[in-house]
Batch of 4 targets.
Target 1
Amino acid sequence: MKKYIILCEGKHDAAFLSLLMDNYDCGKYEVFHLRENQENNTGNTDKDFTIRRRNNREATKLRNFKKRSNKNVVLIKDEGDQDDCIEQFFEIVNDFNSTDDIYITLLLDYDNENIWHHLGNNIESYKGKKEILVFRNQYVKEHDLICDYLDNCIHRLVVYPHKYSMEVHIREITGIDIDKKGSHQQTNVINKFYSNLESEFIESIHTKIFERSV
């Protein structure tokens, strides 16, 4: 059974991806928030993990997801930070090989041009770099180390198709600054945002994450 790990920068991206999973009926999935509930650690569900980078609970989560007995098809992993997200992507790519039937996707906003320098350095040093396919959006500048297309790709870097970020896109669509809302209100804003997106836009993200040439 093919499985997918999707790494994203924060909780808004994770909420958006959860709606994508529900609306496309992509199978069972779970969301893993690295930094959620640090101030109010009252639960122990998948959405309540409060862990430090690369600790045992995170490693256990990845090992359990890999097991055949785990029926989840998708693991959405909220890294809580752009730089951590990039580094974690390459670490996980190196930990999983092609025989695992696990495809890894990194979803990034284009709100910081330094990401291309950071990505370029990682891709250049990554021993399996030819297995990575990068989807640019129309706003992303050329970068010598990043290719538009590679045959037989396994893992992917996907840029959210907006010239700045998902949060800016949400404000443009809904007129609401999501970062100024509480958790419950943010969920409502994400739902409103998603429901007002054009189907072609949503389909393009789904395709970039889930359709593989292997």
Target 2
Amino acid sequence: MRLLRDAVGLAGVLATGWWAFTFSGPYRFIADSQLDWFGVYYPSVTNVLTLVVAITPALLMSIVLRVQERAAHPEEDRRIWLYERYGQFAIIAIVAAGFAAQGAYKLGDAATMGPRTAVDLAAWEAGEVPVSRWVEVKAVPAWDVAVTVVDGSLETTILPLLSPDWTPEGRVVLYATMTKEQQYRLYNSRSDERRTVSGTVARVGLQGSEGAWMADSQARPLDPHHRVLEYENTPDATKQSGILWLGGGSVVVLMMVFAI
């Protein structure tokens, strides 16, 4: 039965990767549910919850095996049992800490975003950084230099946002990140160039290869004080993401504890 459990667990892990890559199965259902509830979905949370679903049969088989072992060896000393499994408990503690840290960060980030604020993008380009990180701006998207990042089945567009009076000598201080579906909605929302764009501003700008690709696309270095706007995100959605991380982490940890 152990070999069968291991095979079922491995199949669950592989299935999770396939569902995420093809945007199908439980992965798609969980992602669509987040879009329906929050207007945005989080790939990391979706991966975790899909993995929980996929490996549940293997974890239940582990619980059955453990119950059978305890019934067969009732004299087993508890201290020896704990000593033999201290490594497994250490792994569980690390996993729990990771989930808790991510969830706490999301909840703290949501709590400090501030109220929804209409921001003058031209003033921002001139150096007046808004206090609130939940903003709404009137902007002209620079569609011609947008960058699309493909990660498996997920396509993310990075779109520079410019004030209506922006000139090539001006600063580019805001970049919106959005899914392909969000990009279509924004593109078709008006017939002229201006768009009303809302979302939450991340604490940091574009990093790593994404920053390098955008700098190449717009043929100019990134402004050192630029920021990234998560299109259509809200503090409530970020808070819900934090709760999902904490809840999903609790489920994973409890199942791991029962499994050993």
Target 3
Amino acid sequence: MSEEKYYTPIIDEFRVWFVYEVKRNEIWTRTYINRKNPDISRIQAKIEDKKIRVKFLDIDDIENLIVTKIDPDGCFYFEDNDKNELCMSVSGRAIKIVDVEMNETRFSGQIKNRSELKVLLNQIHVKCI
């Protein structure tokens, strides 16, 4: 995983359930988009003022989204909705998810944050906890 912990998002990343932090009175508070029509102009202004940040994906995010076991090589094992065993390997921001039995890649690419990982897991039929 990356040494940098946070980044400034672009407005295109914001969607329902997107998790981010807002700076209010010098304190960062975690929040998320919880309605279909957020005030985009307000969010954009806060981004420009450096009052919004997003935490990069880390090990805790992965462990909190999926039930896993981790092997000594750092591969996260979990199951999809059909009980197929999957293995997720992480290198920096690059993630690869492989169906263990079929030796078939389900995903290979960059994931920046928890919200992106959650969308991906839903797309490959993995129930998040």
Target 4
Amino acid sequence: MTEIDQVVDLRSLPPTRRSQALALVLFDHAGAAHQLPMRGRRLLQQAAAYYSAAQQADGERPDRLGRDLALAAPIGRPRAADQAIVASAVAFQREKLHPNREPSFLRLDEKNQRTALRLAAILRIASAVQDQSLDLQLVSGEEDAFTLIVEGAHAAETIAAVEKRAQLWREAIGPLTVRAAEPGEVAAARSADWRRADCRGGAAAITALF
């Protein structure tokens, strides 16, 4: 089976919007691994927006402010779980994670807790590269494994930033490798408007460019 994947270029977006857009691209291309419904995409978009707003307002603790913004938003009782998922995903952008100490997370049942953790994991990766104008390539492999390939002047710094925030992805979603690109590797992929996934032995090499 062959799939077609669209090239996505986020470099023209301002940093605050790039983080949100990148989070959604990661959600879309890692769907087979995180196994979240489309409802999760909407919740991720909300979490990214709250976190971005908090980063602009409070550089020291945007995780806390963003969580509080999410919890303060008016919402009906049937969607209270969604609000807690969004708040938890933002709260888990902090450096040290302690899920069992987060009240909004403890309100959720086991299924919704998994959703919150996976959304948080995606947002952590997206926020690690939001300030860099880089060429990035996400390639999927066997057993929900992904490789994030980084090319650009700030590749080393970005790889370090992603690695610092990648543990939750590995725990909640699956294997993630982050590496520098070979010379011209990502730029060559960017030259085509569309690329086909190469499926060999059940492994799909799905490519997305950010």
